[in-house]
Structure formats: structure tokens, C-alpha cells
Recover the amino acids of this structure.
């Protein structure tokens, strides 16, 4: 069960749970038991175990109250620097760079097609 009701277990969620198996400082290793559910079959579980972890996405959202508190205690330039270094800003830049690269490919294809006319 997730925040959206019953949904398939994500590879990153399984990795997170498996990383918590065992007792820190006491056990050298932990065991993870993966039980089949009514929604997933044994082959689904096997595929899940073979999948790489899902990419991490930031849910960072600075609210107005937090922004005001930060601004009250820090100079504006430091606030801008903190936000620019956040994981949310990093993922936004990565998505923008990917979009720009895709746009460049579309522009190149458009020029190629125009040359055929």
C-alpha cells in the first residue's frame, strides 16, 4: 500500500526496505522476505528483484513561511545559493538540459526535412 492505495512495489522502495534489514552494529547481514500478494505474481517479484533502482526525484518545495524565515536569518545571496544547490534545482537543471538537447535534435531534423523540399 502506498499513498495512492494499492500499487506495485517500486524497485527503489524494495531497496530501501532491504537496506533496513538487520540491526546496525549487531548483525553483519539482514534478511528480506518478499511475499507474493494478490496483486503481484511470483514472476513479477522476480522481475522486481532484477530491476535497477528507480531514479530519485526531489519533492523539495520551499513554502512561503520557510522562505521568509530563511531570508530573515540569511542574506539574499546566501538564500539564492542554498536554493540553487538543492537537489530539486539539480534535477530541474538536468531535465532542462535534456529538453534542450531534444529540441536541438528536432531543429536538426526540421532543417534536414526542409532541405528535401
Amino acid at each position: 500500500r502506498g499513498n495512492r492505495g494499492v500499487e506495485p512495489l517500486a524497485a527503489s522502495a524494495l531497496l530501501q526496505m532491504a537496506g533496513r534489514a538487520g540491526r546496525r552494529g549487531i548483525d553483519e547481514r539482514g534478511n528480506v522476505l518478499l511475499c507474493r500478494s494478490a496483486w503481484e505474481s511470483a514472476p513479477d517479484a522476480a522481475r522486481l528483484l532484477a530491476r535497477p533502482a528507480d531514479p530519485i526525484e526531489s519533492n523539495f518545495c520551499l513554502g512561503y513561511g520557510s522562505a521568509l524565515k530563511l531570508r530573515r536569518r540569511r542574506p539574499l545571496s546566501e538564500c539564492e545559493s542554498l536554493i540553487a544547490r538543492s537537489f530539486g534545482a539539480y534535477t530541474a537543471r538536468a531535465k532542462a538540459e535534456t529538453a534542450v538537447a531534444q529540441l536541438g535534435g528536432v531543429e536538426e531534423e526540421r532543417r534536414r526535412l526542409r532541405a528535401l523540399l
The longest helix spans residues 87-116. Residues 17 and 32 are 8 Å apart (CA to CA).
